[in-house]
Structures are given as structure tokens and as C-alpha cells.
Specification:
about 150 residues; alpha/beta; Rossmann fold; six-stranded mixed sheet; 6 helices; 6 strands; binds flavin mononucleotide
């Protein structure tokens, strides 16, 4: 089975999880890179605003085509109770190209369910599985059991 992990990460938390999933599954890995700058304090505020309005933005060129894969893992941090909008932009850009999907989401502690629901709406299909982890759990490497059942 061919597997792709596509993720967006502003501060490397979701990235750590994405790399662990790719390592364990042997998947290809695509980092979604925004052309909009979300760094620093101003970037944080812009991110919150753009996530709330579900703003579609331009992304750097992608390496992989999701339609080439049986399963795509989509990973994203929560921004203002929603999926960080670079991920929504990625899904939009690849509309109709997803076979099976699984979602993994990191957040300080809230907004997981809304983010899953939003991603499901944009992809147009329900995920086979979801994984929700806090920033702390990822940073402390407290996710090995959840990760095992997520990638099963
Ligand atoms: C603009 C912005 C908005 C955020 N909003 C939320 C939120 O609503 N709820 C929450 O629990 N965490 C929120 N966070 C925290 C991130 O979801 C969390 O730190 C995440 O693990 C960061 O992942 P990353 O390093 O992959 O970007 C927000 C972070 C940013 C930058």
C-alpha cells in the first residue's frame, strides 16, 4: 500500500509527529510550505485571523500528488479552534485527489473536534482514523501507544 504523509507545521510540533508516522509506515513525506509568512508575533496574529476566515493562500510547489497514494495522512496544528489554513489551502488545491485519509492534529489543548470536522468537510470524506495530541505530549514523546493504533 502506498502512503503519503502531508503536514503543515509552524513550530515543528506537528512536524515531529509527521516524521514519526513516515518513519513507522515507510511513507513519502510532504511538508506544506506557506508563501504567507506566519512567523513571529505578527505572523501568529495573521494566522489566527486567516484560520478563522478559512483563507486560501498560495503554497510553495509540492513534490507529491496525493492521487498516487492509497492512503494520505494529513497533519495540522489547531489555529483559533480550526485547522491552520495552509492545510485547508492544500486540501482545496488537491480537491478530489484523495483516496483514504487519516487526520492527525496537535494543539495546546482545545479545538480538536472542530478541526477534524472542518478537514472532513474540505476533503469530502470521513477519515479512517484520527489522532489528537497536545503540544506537551508531542514534545515529551508521550504518544507511542496512540501512534501505534493510529497507524495500524
Ligand atoms: C495562530 C495560532 C492559533 C492557535 N490557536 C490554538 C487554539 O485555538 N487552541 C489550542 O489548543 N492551541 C492553539 N494554538 C497552539 C498550537 O495549535 C499548538 O502549539 C500546536 O501544537 C503547534 O503545532 P506546530 O508546531 O506544528 O505549528 C495556536 C497556535 C497558533 C500559532
Amino acid at each position: 500500500m502506498s502512503v503519503l504523509v502531508a503536514y503543515y507545521s509552524r513550530s515543528n510540533v506537528t512536524k515531529k509527529l509527521a516524521e514519526a508516522i513516515a518513519r513507522e509506515t515507510g511513507a513519502d513525506i510532504e511538508e506544506i510550505v506557506s508563501k504567507v509568512n506566519y512567523d513571529g508575533k505578527i505572523g501568529y496574529m495573521r494566522g489566527g485571523k486567516d484560520a478563522i476566515s478559512e483563507k486560501i493562500i498560495d503554497l510553495e510547489a509540492l513534490e507529491f500528488d496525493p492521487s498516487d497514494y492509497d492512503l494520505v495522512y494529513l497533519g495540522v496544528p489547531v489555529w483559533a479552534g480550526k485547522a491552520a489554513n495552509p492545510m485547508i489551502s492544500y486540501i482545496k488545491q488537491n480537491e478530489g485527489k484523495f483516496n483514504d485519509v487519516k487526520f492527525f492534529v496537535t494543539a495546546g489543548g482545545s479545538g480538536f473536534e472542530g478541526t477534524f470536522a472542518q478537514m472532513e468537510k474540505y476533503v469530502g470524506k470521513a477519515p479512517l482514523k484520527t489522532l489528537a495530541l497536545t503540544t506537551k505530549e508531542v514534545k515529551r514523546d508521550e504518544f507511542s501507544e496512540e501512534l501505534s493504533s493510529f497507524i495500524e
